[in-house]
Sequence to fold (586 residues):
Amino acid sequence: MESLEGRTLLGSLFECASKHPAKVALRSGGESLTYERYMARILSTAARLRALGVAEASRVLVSSPNSLHIPILYFAIHALGAIAVPIAPDTAGLAVVALANDCGATLAVLGRAPAGMPCPVTTPPEMTAPGTGSVAPVCRRGSIADILYTTGTTGKKKGAVLTQENVFAAARNMTEFIGTTGEDVEVLPLPLSHSFGIGRLRSLALAGHTLAIERGVGNGGPVIKSLLSLRATGLAMVPAGFDILHRVTGDALGQARDRLRYVEIGSAPLRPQTRAWLLDMLPKTRICHHYGLTEASRAAFTECHADPGRTGVGKASPNVSIAICDENLNRLGPRQSGEIVVQGDVVMREYWKQPELTRDALCAWGLRTGDIGYLDEEGYLTLIGRKCDLINVGGRKVIPDEVEEELRLIEGVRDAVCVGETDPLLGEHVKAFVVANHSLDLAAITAFLQPRLEGYKIPRALELTASVPRTGSGKPQRQLLRARPAAESAA
Amino acid sequence: MERESADSTATVSEVESLVYELIGNSIALDSGFALSEDVQLQDIPNMDSLAQVRLVMEIEKLIGGRLSMDEVMALESVGSIRGLLRARGKLRGEP
Fold:
């Protein structure tokens, strides 16, 4: 492995394989791969990719429902010094074409080939089938590992460029905090196209454990079944996944309490009732909740048993520092709210071919996250909302999340999202989009909110709507609501 | 796999319409998608985990009670929905 400069994930994966060749690395859909066979499949897949023109720095689009294909393809691409561009399997055809164009893909490995692709397309099974080919891996620490396209809450896709150093650092930090070891068996129902799921795959290369990849959470039953039948010690899932488990399978998760050593949760806030249920179900498990971005994976962590009274997102991860800055990028003190800025070797290099966006995002302190929060005296971070979502009512800033939380307390309200609407006098006022079981009017909402919120925070406009647009991880896409013509969302 | 006999056409349509109704209440079902017995729920377009939870709730509404853990875990295919409904006495005239 002399050609692997310094420490890279691929180098670590090969080390795991040489130490424990017969250990099972991956399980999925009834198939399993030992570390030795996993390495062989990575190298034979790399040989096929190379035959199709993939070389150092080539971009390769990959997409497949969760299976063994993505873990093989991901590291096969890295073995050639090429760049993995994972995209969600439900990405619409036109969007796939747009992403292939944007990253200048050399090859796309997709379940379905949309019309108009600018590069050759092949399928995951064709690429990853067992074979005898091989390559000498070239994987350099400074080269680009992945381009992860993120919609975020803005609705516009941008490609976060992550180097081999970035992805190694993110894996090291999470493995260190969570404490995953080679003895662990982890159930993973998260999509391997998203930063959270890919992070768990990267951690495999460092911890050398066993990853059981599920197609998804399903109705919750498959997750419980795998946890129990595999005697799993680890689980990674978004908060909604735990809510599904609770709703459909009751307290079945508790049957895993003696073996489950850790769970990792992320991508969305953990509701207090979900958190309380998890603490009750899993009294001996490390319940690790992370705050992070595609651009800076796993920036902060909290362990829920260790921080029982706290509802924030935790302290900076190992090797990461977090600062709070004002609009002029001056650092603020404890309990002063401002923009969260993340510094460390997890921070992306740039946005792909977006120098202006990159300049806006990367400052002297690190990555400007666009999130608003504050640190307490011990460095514990509390998240308040998104900077771009702040509503400016005559100079007074309203954090929409605060209004939404109150709106959701109204009987029959299933969802609520607030945005700023142009106001001739105040610049902006609060407009609420509400999903309700029955008809509601502004007067009723105002009467409910008046004792709870300052006047300027109370919505002046209301639209009842069937649903509000959210990202895959459940964050409201307020930008889309602001752009939505009024008639479309009228009840 | 169990096959319907030729003289149980009414049963087949009853089963099909009930399963279509249950799944259709959970997702916007593409009318061109054939729900044959061995179709896995996770392979049905738009059948994400939230839709699968809605499906469980639809079935619970139909049978008037909660499903057991084993019943939830067995819900993997279109055929398994039918098996569950039969076991819960919601299908008449089944062989």
User: Anything to note?
Assistant: The interface with chain A takes residues 41-42, 48-50, 52-53, 55-56, 67, 69, 72-76 of chain B (CB under 8 Å).
